[in-house]
Amino acid sequence: MPTPGLLYVTMQPKASLPDTQFHDWYNTEHGPLRLRLPFVTNGFRFRATDGEQPEYVALYDITDMDELTRETYLDLRTDLIKTEREKKTMAQIDVGRLLYDLVDERSSPNFRPLEDQADTDAETRGSVLIAVRVATYPDPAKQADLEKWYREEHFEMLSRVPGWRRSRRFVTAAIDSAAPRESLALHEYAPVNGLGGDAHKAAMNTPWGARLMSEVVTSKKRRVYEWYYTFGPAPRELTSLAASDVVGPWNSNDGRTRTFPSTTRPAVESFITTSDGVDIPYRLEGSTDPYAPVVVLSNSILVNWNIWDRFVDAFFAHKQNQRYRVVRYLTRGRRSQSGEQPVNIDLLASDLATLLEALRVPPKAAHLIGVSLGGVTVLNTALLHPERVGAFIACDTNSSAPESNRKAWGDRVAICEKEGSTDPDTKEPIVGEELAEVTTRRWFVPESYQTQPEVLAPVKEAVRTNSLRGFAHSVQALCAYDIRERMATATVPGLFVAGANDGVLPQTMQKMASDLRGGAELKIIDRAGHLPMVEQPVAFAEVVTEFLSKIDG
Questions:
Q1: Could you give the C-alpha distances from 531 to 77, 352, 398, 496, in angstroms and in order?
Q2: Taking the CA of residue 534 as centre, how many other CA atoms within 13 Å lie in the half-sphere pointing to its CB?
Q3: In the 3-class helix/strand/coil scheme, how is 294-341 assigned residue by residue?
Q4: Rounded to an integer, what distance in angstroms lies between the CA atom of residue 151 and that of residue 135?
Q5: Whole-prediction pTM value?
């Protein structure tokens, strides 16, 4: 039988540790590693408001405390995963690590877990946590008396305090047999509450409670904290990376998480894991405001996120766009690990929604921009997950695709299989030169090969090196879909964009724009083909900037 519980960690940085290094390490390296574990359901940081030390406490709810004795968790505390930065940082922190088993819980009828609240919610910022640690005489009867008081009187009376959300009681975990037994009570309150008021005073001053304090309790420590940070499985800390005293660039031991400090445009790269076990790498950069809206860029098939490089530069060159964070990610199918289930546009929309959730992007704070397969992905995400999306821009894409597409894409896969190219390091099959040449020649206008071949070359290389398995699997998404009925019920504002030289798409996308409920504009990018953000990044950035200015002011 699983034993739910709590990992309770107090931290007091020493004077030698810069705040920026402390927060970057905690929010980027330490916390997200734990939130990726399936038995860690949430993670929070709170900061003391009572003027006492330790100043910080972190809480992690655990579904089964026995998991903390097993290799998956214990590896986090070994050199296998601990980086040199973590060792040097933790050497400058006084850490108190306590393990507790959950005993009892009571919550308000309208209680909403903190992890389900957006960080921008008024009900999140300023949330109060009161932690009370109590030790008692080692007398089972006295301990039972304390438990009864909590259960029958104290929690009941606290529930009458305005702003009370939840009270939980824990005892020292059974897996921590060497630790002295104590009780921990956690009381959660809304930012506006009745702490110190009549109902609270009444709960704190009863004959039963007074007797316990004199006859049962040997020590009591009460701390008052305020919400500081909610962890997610995806690192998103940019604020600290803009400071001059932060340590970096930094990377995890496996190289999958990296930071890029900058006073103007800091960035972090890492990954999320979908519910079916597929890792989706991403790059987050831009505004250091942790609550800034996010612009998400979704790729076409066969490319990586470097297709957006020049656009992102042009986008941030507009001063009003420096209020945004920008997220790029590798679409399922870029790499060989693409899962076992069939890939379709609904699954790709789910991947994007999962990324937004992992990054804790608030509702309606994500603006999605996608091209080709990414174009229909962002459109479909706005249709299926409208609560998450503020606006979308779909580029060079279609609202439907016939079953006959399957043969055409199958023929392209066959070209790759016949060539037989492999990655020189992994020896895995890749798309290869022939399809890369044919594809990019189709995507770009002839003029670009004369005027900017150095811009097109990295795109061709991305196509050439795409996993063949990932390509063959993910290309299913471009076959036999139709979202026109969904578009008729759309609630998220959108814009459609096409390269002027992208075949018939400028004409067919005009129909897409009219099919969207409420109508939408179609913008044409001159001297561009299938990837206008590559060939004409400045013009594309101007179109995006104009649209987002209408959305966000």
A1: 45, 20, 14, 13
A2: 31
A3: EEEEECCCCCCHHHHHHHHHHHHHCHHHHHCEEEEECCCCCCCCCCCC
A4: 17
A5: 0.96
Q: Cα–Cα distances in Å, from 286 out to 258, 271, 326?
A: 15, 18, 6
Domains of the chain and any CATH numbers: 5-230 (3.30.70.100), 274-552 (3.40.50.1820)
The residues that bridge with 123 in the sheet, in sequence order, are none
- DSSP-assigned states of every residue in 30-97: IHHHHHTSTTEEEEEEEEESSS-SS-EEEEEEES-GGGGGSHHHHGGGSTTT--HHHHHHHTTEEEEE
Q: Is the sign of the CA dihedral 457, 314, 248, 231 positive or negative? A: negative
**Cis, bond preceding 249 (omega within 30 deg of 0):** yes
3-state secondary structure 215-254: HCEEEEEEEEEEEEEECCCCCCCCCHHHCCCCCCCEECCC
Which tens digit of pLDDT belongs to each residue from 409-450? Answer: 999 999 999 999 999 999 999 999 999 999 999 999 999 999
First to last CA, the chain: 54
CA separation (Å) from 40 to 34, 64, 188? Answer: 7, 9, 20
- pLDDT, tens digit, 9 for 90 and up, residues 292-331: 999 999 999 999 999 999 999 999 999 999 999 999 999 9
* 128, 188 Cβ separation under 8 angstroms: yes
By three-state DSSP, how is residue 454 classified?
Answer: helix
Tell me how crowded residue 346 is: count the other CB atoms within 10 A of its CB: 16
Task: Give the pLDDT confidence of 526-544 residue by residue, as tens digits.
Answer: 999 999 999 999 999 999 9
* Distance between CA atoms of residues 103 and 169, nearest Å: 6
Torsion-angle region of residue 104: left (phi > 0), alpha (psi -120 to 50) or beta?
A: beta
Token digits of residue 208: 């039963």
Distance between CA 527 and CA 498 in Å, rounded?
A: 11
3-state secondary structure of 390: strand
